[in-house]
Every structure is written in structure tokens, then in C-alpha cells.
Design brief:
Chain lengths: 106, 267
């Protein structure tokens, strides 16, 4: 089961710089490994991450095979208005996960 | 050297001998790290890694704890019972339990670890098949149970297990493998010094099951012990063997007083 953990401050002052931390459970199988019998293990990674703030895209990332399991992505933004952050991860084999977090800006 | 000094030394050595023979309830105090100097390897980590362990939204071990919480309430086996049906809310009923394990099991006449305890419940109460070692389910359940003891001091009651603690201690001090090393040569005698690029930890199992960055997943203490034995180029003990449990027991007893950190993060 895919789980995502989001850490966004619930409240912020207008214009304040806030840190957003995200963690998603994923094996991030690189595609370069082999089993004991020599069969290649197919690649299975998260390839992209997008964060929107009230519908506007504020952060995106492309992920590659060298990234460790359970990718932890953290970034900053300016708290402009109350609303919602939406997070979306997509990857190999039709992988897709979403999460959201609300913020109140005073 | 004067006669008096020699006599004193003889007396001292006889006293040591008597102490080791006469008080089996305190096995292995000689050569052990004194309580005031016991350190979790948490202290050796970078501030970034410490922050990762302390913040539950940054600690990947939280995934297993959450999965374990779901499994706790999920009915399983022919008896169609969930852990919660007998034990209720784990936050109350499992508080402090992991700090006491491995514990003596009267029916088996020997200590069992948390993994074996979970599997005993599964086979005897739930009438389900036991979970495999290092399976996601077993790691999730043990992480969830041990999480309820986070911050509590490790406190093993060894009164009925003295011989098993002794057995674990002798395994800990036994030279083995192609490198002819014993665990205590690193973890008792040379902790704090460098081994290649790493600081040698005291080897206290305070945070198991823990998330090891090298593994990119959660793993049990037995997996870690097998790692060490492979590093010593010794034949690692199979999962669930009495040797593994004796080592776990001795290590937990050796770490008594240190707080439980499950799910810990280690490099």
C-alpha cells in the first residue's frame, strides 16, 4: 500500500517563507539490478512529482534511477493565501499517488 | 615487587574469580561498558539524520508503523481474530512491552523475541500461518508494537533467563569467522574509534526494527546481526535460531536503561 507523509505548517503569516516536506513509500527499483539467477529486475521508479498551491504549480521534480527508496522531497514557498497544497507523484507501471494539505494564512 | 603486593594481587584475582562464580545474576559485568558510558549510536549520527529519526513525517519507519496499525485491527486466520480483539488499543496494552523483550516463555522454557511472540499469537490465537522473518507484515507489526515503547528505558527481567544471557554473552565474546573476530573486540573494547570511515558504535539495539539507509528499508535486529557476521566472514546464524535470540537477549540486557527509539534511522 502506498503511503505519503506530508508536513506543511497549518498556519502561516502572509509573505512568510514556509518549508514543505514530503515522503512517499516507493521501492525505487533502479532497473540495473539482477536476481540471484541473473534475470534483470525491471525498473520501477517514481518519475515525476508536482506540487500545486491553490491550483497553481509551484514545484516540480523529475526523479531518476539513482534516487533512493522512499523519496523525501523538501522545498520552500511563500505563503500568499489560505488554501490547499496538492501533491502528485507519478511513475513506472502506471504508478500514481496524491495527497493534499491545507494552510491558513493570516 | 614486594610480597605484600603479590599477596594483594592474588587476593584480588581470587575475589574476581569468586565474584564470577558466586553471582550468576550479574553475568558479564567484567569488561562491560559502565552504565554512565552507555551511548546509543543515535549520538554518532549527523544532525540531519537525527532530525530524520525524530520527525515522524520524515522518518520512513513511519510507513511500517502505520501499516502495523492497520494489521493490528485486521482479522486473520481460521479463528477470524485481530490482534485488537484480545489486546485492545495497542497504545495502552503494548506500552513498554518491547522494552522487556526478549522475554521468558514458560511453555517453551526459553526466551522468545518480539517476532516470535507475534508469530506465537498468530499460530495459537489466530490459527493463522506464521509470518516470515523480514516480511513486510512482521516488520510492520513489530514496528507498531515497539513504537508504543518509544522513550521508555530498556528493562529486561533476567531472573529466569540467566543461563541464556550467559549463552548470548559467550557468543558475543566468541571469536569467529575468517577474520577471527569477536563482537566485543569492536563494541566493548574499541567503541568510539574509527573503522575505515565509520565510528565504531557500542552496538546497543535500541531502535529495532529500524530503517537503515544502506538497506533502503526497515530491518530487524537479526538481519543486522547477520550483517555483522557476514562482515566478520563468519557463517551467519539463521533467522529465529536460539543463537540469534540469545544474542538479542544479551544485547538488550547490555543496553538496559537506554531509551527505546523504534523506529530508529541509521546510516
Amino acid at each position: 500500500m502506498t503511503r505519503a507523509l506530508i508536513n506543511v505548517p497549518p498556519k502561516a503569516k502572509r509573505g512568510e517563507i514556509i518549508a514543505i516536506r514530503t515522503l512517499i513509500s516507493h521501492v525505487m527499483e533502479s532497473g540495473f539490478r539482477h536476481t540471484n539467477t541473473g534475470a534483470p529486475i525491471p525498473r520501477d521508479i517514481v518519475t515525476s512529482f508536482v506540487c500545486t498551491y491553490n491550483g497553481e504549480e509551484i514545484f516540480t521534480a523529475e526523479l531518476h534511477p539513482a534516487i533512493a527508496a522512499n523519496p523525501f522531497i523538501t522545498f520552500h514557498t511563500v505563503a500568499t493565501e489560505s488554501g490547499t497544497f496538492e501533491f502528485k507523484w507519478t511513475g513506472d507501471n502506471g504508478f500514481s499517488a496524491t495527497a493534499s494539505a491545507a494552510i491558513t494564512v493570516e | 615487587m614486594s610480597d605484600r603486593t603479590i599477596r594483594l594481587r592474588r587476593l584480588a584475582s581470587i575475589a574476581t574469580l569468586l565474584a564470577s562464580v558466586g553471582s550468576p545474576a550479574v553475568p558479564g559485568w567484567c569488561g562491560e561498558i559502565p552504565p554512565g558510558e552507555r551511548r546509543s549510536s543515535y549520538d554518532l549520527m549527523s544532525s540531519e539524520l537525527k532530525a530524520m529519526q525524530d520527525d515522524e513525517t520524515a522518518n520512513p519507519g513511519t510507513f511500517w508503523v502505520l501499516d502495523g496499525e492497520a494489521l493490528w485491527r485486521q482479522k486473520a486466520g481460521a479463528a477470524d481474530k485481530a490482534c485488537a480483539d484480545c489486546h485492545g488499543d495497542a497504545r495502552a496494552s503494548m506500552k513498554g512491552v518491547a522494552a522487556r523483550y526478549p522475554a521468558f516463555n514458560a511453555a517453551r522454557g526459553r526466551p522468545i523475541d518480539l517476532e516470535q511472540r507475534v508469530n506465537l499469537c498468530r499460530t495459537e490465537q489466530q490459527k493463522a500461518s506464521p509470518l516470515a522473518h523480514e516480511s513486510k507484515e512482521l516488520l510492520a507489526l513489530t514496528a507498531y508494537v515497539a513504537r508504543q515503547s518509544r522513550g521508555m528505558p530498556i528493562d529486561i527481567a533476567i531472573d529466569r533467563m540467566v543461563e541464556f544471557v550467559e549463552a548470548g554473552r559467550s557468543l558475543f565474546r566468541r571469536r569467529q569467522g575468517q577474520l577471527n573476530l569477536a563482537c566485543n573486540q569492536c563494541h566493548d573494547d574499541n567503541w568510539g574509534k574509527s573503522l575505515a570511515g565509520n565510528t565504531i558504535p557500542q552496538g546497543h539495539p535500541t531502535g529495532y526494527p529500524l530503517y537503515r539507509l544502506e538497506w533502503q528499508t526497515l530491518g530487524s535486529l537479526q538481519r543486522r546481526l547477520r550483517n555483522c557476521m557476514i562482515g566478520m566472514r563468519a557463517e551467519p546464524y539463521e533467522y529465529g535460531t536460539p543463537e540469534q535470540v540469545a544474542l538479542e537477549l544479551y544485547l538488550m540486557w547490555r543496553a538496559r536503561g537506554l531509551p527505546v527509539e523504534t523506529p530508529a534511522v541509521r546510516p
